[in-house]
Each structure stands twice: as C-alpha cells, then as structure tokens.
Amino acid sequence: QLQLVESGGALVQIGGSLRLSCVKSGFSFDYYAIGWFRQAPGKEREGVSCISASGDRAQYTDSAKARFTISADQAKSTVYLQMNKLKPEDTAIYYCAAFFSGRDCYLSPDEYDYWGQGTQVTVSS
Description:
By secondary structure, the protein is mainly β.
C-alpha cells in the first residue's frame, strides 16, 4: 500500500545542481521518517540524508552536509533532496525510503522498510 516514487535524476556537469523528488502515497497517517540513499557501482548503499516524520529534524552524511538539503512539502506528499556543487563521486542510483518513526531518522538502510525504485544521477565533466 505504501509507495515511494523517486524522480529528478539526470546527467549533470560537475558543479551543477539537481533536485530529487520522492512522492509518498499510502500513508494513512504520516508518521514515517524519509531517507535518501545512494548506491554507486561497486559500493554499498550509503545513507545521504533523512528527515523525521515531523519534518523538524534532518541528518546528512559528511560528504553531503555542506552541499545537499532535504526538505518536505506536506501538501504535495513529497520529500526533496536539493543537491548542489555536484561531484563525480555523487554519481549513483538514488533511492528514497521510509520507516515508521515518532521522532528521529537514521542513515542506516537497515532501519527502513519501504523503498522506491531509484533514480539515476550521473555527474560528468
């Protein structure tokens, strides 16, 4: 019932920006934390950012902290990941995920129960 659909991935030049979207459906009551994860070829899935169910807490991995911003639009049931100053090492499939949570979110993929299918981000010179 609960579904997550990512969009916004694209080919972008080094230093460019993208905004990824994660549209949520099937949330009878919106008490789910949302995380953004990425997986590059040969790498394990990595937590990038997350936002709490209430939207007032967020976390970022070190590589994303100064460049990425997570936000939510309740009216559109959408969580965004604004990515600036993109680097080749940001190239990956980006996934959004959700788990039932009262307050905090986590950057460990093991905490999440629901996953989108991913959107490809490629950063090239």
